[in-house]
Amino acid sequence: MLTVVPRPVSVRAPAKVNLHLAVGDLRPDGYHELTTVFHALSLVDDVSVVAAETLSVSVYGDDAGIVPTDHTNLAWKAAELVAAHAGRRPAVAISIDKGIPVAGGMAGGSADAAATVVALDALWNLGLSREKIMDFAAQLGSDVPFSVAGGTAVGTGRGEKLLPVLSRNSFHWVLALAKGGLSTPAVYRELDRLRERGTPPRLGAPDELMQALASGDPARVGPLLGNDLQAAALSLEPGLRRTLRAGTEAGAIAGIVSGSGPTCAFLCASADHAVEVGAELSGAGVCRTVRVASGPVPGARVRGDGTRPDGRHPDRTATDRTSTDRDRGHH
Ligand SMILES: C[C@@](CO)(OP(=O)(O)O)[C@H](O)COP(=O)(O)OP(=O)(O)OC[C@H]1O[C@@H](n2ccc(N)nc2=O)[C@H](O)[C@@H]1O
Ligand SMILES: Nc1ncnc2c1ncn2[C@@H]1O[C@H](COP(=O)(O)OP(=O)(O)O)[C@@H](O)[C@H]1O
Fold this sequence. Notes:
The protein has 331 residues and is of the alpha+beta class. 34% of the residues lie in helices and 26% in strands. The protein has two domains: 9-165, Ribosomal Protein S5, domain 2 (2-Layer Sandwich); 171-295, Alpha-Beta Plaits, CATH 3.30.70. It has helices at residues 74-86, 108-123, 130-140, 144-149, 184-197, 207-215, 218-221, 230-236, 240-249, 271-283, 318-328, and strands at residues 9-26, 32-51, 56-60, 92-97, 152-156, 161-164, 171-177, 226-227, 254-257, 264-268, 289-295, 301-302. Strand 3, helix 1 (74-86) and strand 4 (92-97) form a beta-alpha-beta unit. The termini are far apart. The structure holds 4-diphosphocytidyl-2-C-methyl-D-erythritol 2-phosphate (SUD) and adenosine-5'-diphosphate.
């Protein structure tokens, strides 16, 4: 008798750092109007989906214990959304190998949602258009379209409207992962509170940063990094000031809180320099752990042996694989 073994589809999706995060006023729908420059980093989650009797989510990796495995997991929500569109039951087992810190301001949940949409499109041979995939992504969260797109991009609206940014070369980063996480809505609320009590400075337009990115020179990019949420994250987690100071004392060109935090991201001059700064920072005892990464990297893409269940080639190059696998390692 012939036994058909279901074949999994595996998708890799990147973390992000906001090189520029200008937060406008609170909109009536509860979101803030943003102008942000997203940058995808070689710190990744791998998500695989395989046909099963019922929908399930399993999570592996250092932070696995604090990630929900029920209907509140963004990958679960993504599966329900795509299945409803395809008119089928979401009968898949989703397994997530987490390399992205949880609640760290690096869009880990968004990466998993993006990866699940891309994986189910391949597993079920849906042939979804890029536009439809982006539409699902925007329904799942403000950061999810960027997790699909990857690279470097300007996000407007609540972050979901994207335009690619020209950036030359790779940039090298050290990430200081914190002991706990910070809730994104709580950080936005704290910024609103700070703005009610005073007038914390607001970032302008990212024009100069775009020019610096096009030049590919990290020494030009460093002083132009900025994040309006940083004041709010520091107000909730004052210890992050020490982390930021330690990063620059360790020789980084510049450091910022990543998105809503508490991860801090430090820009370095080269891959070797990032390894040196990472070693110094890990000895300073100001964070849970340190990672090195580079960017920009591609968005959520099918991995594997070169073929998808429909026999077509995934949109992925050998270069992507070498850089992401190398950078994935712990420091
Ligand atoms: C701050 C940022 C910066 O890229 O990322 P993280 O640092 O959390 O990863 C994003 O704006 C987070 O995006 P994401 O995590 O997808 O947010 P969503 O699920 O859409 O929204 C969660 C909550 O964040 C707040 N929110 C989000 C986006 C936005 N433009 N304005 C907001 O005020 C709202 O309170 C919303 O209810
Ligand atoms: N697949 C997922 N991975 C991580 N967290 C998830 C996931 N799905 C839902 N969550 C929930 O979303 C919260 C925010 O997670 P995450 O996306 O990692 O952080 P951030 O919004 O700071 O980028 C977590 O605390 C967790 O409860």
